[in-house]
Specification:
The complex is a heterodimer of chains A (about 300) and B (about 325). Chain A has about 300 residues and is mainly α. Chain A has 15 helices and no strands. In chain A, helix 6 (about 125-135) crosses helix 9 (about 170-180). Chain A: Pfam families: BPD_transp_1 (PF00528).
Chain lengths: ~300, ~325
Amino acid sequence: MVTQALPGSQARRMQTINGTRPPGLGIRGLKGIVLLICCALVVVPFIAVVATSLADQRQITEAGGYVLWPHHPTLAAYQAIFRGGVVTRALLVSVGITAVGAALSVTVVALLAYSLSRPGTWGQRSVLMLILFTMLFNAGIIPNYLLIKQLGLVDSYWSLILPTLVSAFQVIIMRAFFLEVPTEIIDAARIDGANELQILTRIMLPVSKAVIAVVALFNAVAYWNAFFNAVLYINSSEKWPLQLVLRTYVVNNAAVGGDLPGEVLPPQHSLQMAILVVSLVPICLVYPFLQRHFAKGVVVGAVKG
Amino acid sequence: MMSALDTRAAGRRSPGTPPATHPEPRAARRQSSWQRFKRDRFLLLLGLPGVLAVLLFHYIPLIGDIIAFKDYRPYLTIWESAWTGLSNFGVIFNGDPAFLNALKNTLIISLLQIVLVFPVPIGLALLLNSLLGERIKRFVQSILYLPHFMSWVIVVALFQQMLGNAGVYNTWAGSHGLPTLHIIGNTHLFYVLITSQVIWKDAGWSTIIFLAAISRVDLELLEAVAVDGGGRLRQLWHVTLPAIRSVIVLLLILKLGDVLTVGFEQIFLQQAPVGQQASEVLDTYVYNHGIVDGDWGAAAAVGLVKGLVGAALVLTANKVAHLFGERGVYASW
């Protein structure tokens, strides 16, 4: 949608751009350099992190801490952190929370959005107002913390999943999508004798696979990245998700590998960078999908009117 | 973000369009509330888990806000704690220095974000739009959008690794005899650090909304400018910028409505090395004073007032957007 070529104008754009001559070499070169710098600012940190996580002790020492290209790539750092210490555990916790949270969240949100998308449902406007209001006013950290404490969820994985289960924004987006499904189809199905459950499972869900996948991924990224709820609610370090481990060992620079069995550990730096890589790789894996669909979703939601 | 929230467009019929089709629209109107409740019971059941989650995690905490008026002690329940009237709000109205400092930092960081961060995606979007090759454009976009999906922990970690005192840049600069940087952990440059992190993370992603607006610019108008002898700068000034002005105004107003909230996780992660004087903002104040120091009542009071003022600002901003002829977020309010 963003980059969509406009039919008909494409040919004209090739010779003249909207009627003006193409910019000179100097201007084009300048633009190229600016964009190259922007891209480098984004990409270089990732390269340095990945390269350092793969580099061996000697090269890291020689380079003074970081390398941009490993001469003798080694997976020693990854083998060390996956040997069953705190990082392995945190990774499992994060994967679990992400999977359960995203699945649960998209289910609840989709059902709520669906029930709010059928015209004339009892209490629909009140519920919509109830949901919209949550975007306007938040009780704040203290009452939220007290609630979790009262519910006995402190130090429970559920404290990382339940509070962010329903996002008003997602309900609104999904509801808008369901509303776009032509009512004729639904009415036809009803005339053919379908009940509400069949309408949902046979018509609504199949046509909205894409939006459900997008919302599920959106939530997966959010759960994977969530950090502060774990600071608030999780006390025991063996229940830490990956983001907390990342903060402790990389941001706060605690020594990695104290709990690891064994001989000589790879350099601290490689271990830290390996933790960083492990926490950002899943995002990079789903990124192509995210980029395509999120960009579309944001735009459709944002500037359609 | 805007039209999606327009409850009227979706929920209620707008006057011009025919009524939403319902199996028996007339009968439905005559049905009593109880009959409609019974008729819709299956749909209501589907929505129930979501409604319960919203009530439990967004509305029950509102009750918890009463501890702002109490002397809450963790070993007592909320109900058992003694009422203290408005004394918890003293930190705000009597101007507790720590609170004022948090307010000052919040407002300065917000202002910096409006002045320095806000224009970046606009410029970037114009630059991207002016690229000739679609492929290059898409490639650059896919690189620039990536940081948006990284958690703040990752962003902060990356910044430390790059710009830290023993980071990539300083290591490289040191070995090449160039001046080294001391940004991380430097109290004087904390605002600069925070601002540049926000730009790094979100400037690319924020171009989407502007690119979409630019893509709807009328090509005929652009060509008309060219026919009249205007160059690209004139096209930009007289056609493109006016065309995206409404989006710019709208986003700017929304940003103004949000001035009391600045990246909580981002700042929380970086408080330790620079100290609270330089880094405390309202949200971290609430956390540090309430949950860390145990001054629950005062922290809840600050949180409550912040929430109320924030909501008032958003609604005001929304009204202002309407005055500017924009639709605003809460179009039906």
